[in-house]
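Collaborator request log, item 7. Partner lab (contact: R.S.) asked for a structural prediction of PNPLA domain-containing protein to inform their binding assays.
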Amino acid sequence: MATLNRRKEESDAKPSGIDYGPVSRAIAWIMPWVFLALRRALIPTLCILALAVLFYLVPQSQDVLIGLAEYVAQDALIVWNWTGLASYLVSSILVSLAVWYCARLLCTVEAWLGMPMAWEVHHFGTRQAELGEAQKIPRDDVRVRKAIRWMPRAYGVGTLATTAGALAFAHLEPQWRASAGVLLVIVILGGPLLATVGLLRLLRHRAARPDRRGERQSFFRFGSIAQVITGFAVYACASFALVRSSSAWPVALLCAVWALLPGVLLYLLVTRRALVRYLFSWDLPQADDGLHFTEVIVQVVAFVVLGFAALAGLAAGPTVIIRGIGSAATVMLFLAAAVFFFCGIQLVLRWISRAVPGFTSLVAIILFLIASYFGREPLGKETLDPRDAPAIAGNGTVTPGPRIIVNAYGGGLRAAIFTAQVLALADDASCGEFGEHIQAMSGVSGGSLGIAVYLAARQELKPLRLWEGCVAGSDAHPLSTPLTDVVTEALVQDHLSPSIARMLSVDLLPLVPPQRGMAMLDSWNDALVGALKNAPPVRGDKAYAPRVTLAVRLGQLGGAILPPPRVYFNTTDADSGARRWFSNFSPNAESTSGGNVTALEWSGVTVGEAVLDSARFPVISPAGAFPPDYQREKVLPRRLVDGGYADNSGAQTLLDESRLWDTGSAPKVMLDINGNPPEAADDPYVTRVCRHKQPAPSHVPTSLLALLSARSAHALDGVVRLSRQIGLCAPGEASQACLHPVQFDLEKVYGVVTADDPHCDEVRNAQLAPLGWYTSSASSVMLRRSSDITVQQVCDLAGIRNCRVRSTTQ
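Returned to partner:
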């Protein structure tokens, strides 16, 4: 009995009896914030960190934000993406409100459970208003209540400040995108917040003590007013600096106005109770009140349902709508839905376990083990409904002149645009003569997509008298570029957003076939169909429906060229590391490499499916299964990944297959189309003119950098050996002297002659690796100008004399 009494006395001992050390006392004020951030509200904490890392530390994500309102220096104009801007604004507000409200519930629902025993915390089970005024509240209780009251507000405002600051940070001049740029963003965001805090203090003091007058009241009022004035003065100075350091003042002014939103949100969050009481006569709980789970069960169920519905909506949304929303807004919508969903799940788990530490983690571990045991790496099974292309009439004669061999490098959407534009511009400049000389084409990843879009558009539109009225070599007629306009419209799109939307929704579900590859394939094909409907020969014909798209059977792809060129779309076998390819000609025993047949049977495969297997960029698209219906056929599938793993140029396949396509005696011309800018270290022009200081070491790990460099070296080696095979380069001859690679000419595009030229920043941006299947407006203009400049070189290599190279974009 004495033992029980002693234990009861120990359990009733006050936490204040604990011996605190000097360090503990010094940091006691911050510990409730740390506890809430890393324990109670961990989900909102991770959301804010993800946004900050994505928008400030990933250079390619800044390209996406720049594309919302972009200054194109070459044309001195601003391209406004109003749909993307509106989507970014709405998604920023949604994710901020989601973080704030979920943090509020996670911090207040059954807050009395799980509190450290060392804190003197009481009364979280009742409303603060129910406590007697004379009852003294312990200091730890006050600290915890203050953290519970202000941390959710800080999280909501901080999330909106992160997204608003990211937009301003991205539109700074490149030399500002470092510590100075971050400091400027902090100042321009902090000014309105400082003014808002001063205004709230002034209103609170006036409401609490309306009849008191005196020196203290006057001093407090003066201090609050001074805080408001100081905040707006700081904001005005920072806005001026932002406008001066931005490429275009209208865009900077928009970013400055956007920076006011966090302050507005803070004001609404603090005054919302008075507003709700005024509009609806409702009394909301206080911000630091502890809530029972039964009081918020409706909100929790709504969170889980709405979060799941939002994720499902991202998965099922049409690609054209997702492209309009944009990648940045799509990611934020996913984060908002995920925060809602997981917040509801965590509150339910807490209620079930009564806040037993580790129970949520235990449930997550069990679910992970179940998914790992029953699941395997999901493979893409993307298919398009195959269509038959109309037959092309012709007399079967070969156009006299040299035969053109095309190999197109990989490099994402930028490589696809450059490849398609170079080929289409050469055709437009020669009134279609250029394409008739093509004998063989081989592409990898983005290069495969560029070849496919060019051939499909040409095959669809040439029988519709695409170049009717075109006079080759005549300056009397204005140069039109109908084929180039079609391929540009089809490819200069945000093809990344649909894939991101599926990857962050349905592809997160275990045991479900991934859909992000299908979303990308649909986006490519839908954009091509829309571009074909806007082509000059059929524009205005509402009954017109394109027949040759990426859904056409691969064996029928010929580009309206007689005889049809041999086309190769290269991929990589993930299990063996071997190079594989799809061709529009049926593979046979002669298609060999080292004794192993490497061509894949094209029967039943559409052009889009073959291109996707060639362009399965890591993470963005899953590994593909070939054949797609391997489960029905009960065979072990080949797992196909991006063709750039084995050879990023496509030249090695042309070399292996040369006995099949190199059947004539006509001279050969090779177009080595590399849709990637020269490496900065290897470009003497960039090094000589636009280099202000010695290049810093690459942040890419050496092991990965070596892998990428080796891939590039193998690609160049394949190009050199192919050129020697077809007689373009003699043994020992320098490759640059005989190959004449078709590549970005940054010197001619930008016209930079001095190191202090502002266009040097754009040259450096061009050196940045592209973000997969997204490209900005400035990049697309740079690509078009590069293609325009390259046309003369292409025509000269092909031996076409009557080739007009004057472009309307110059």
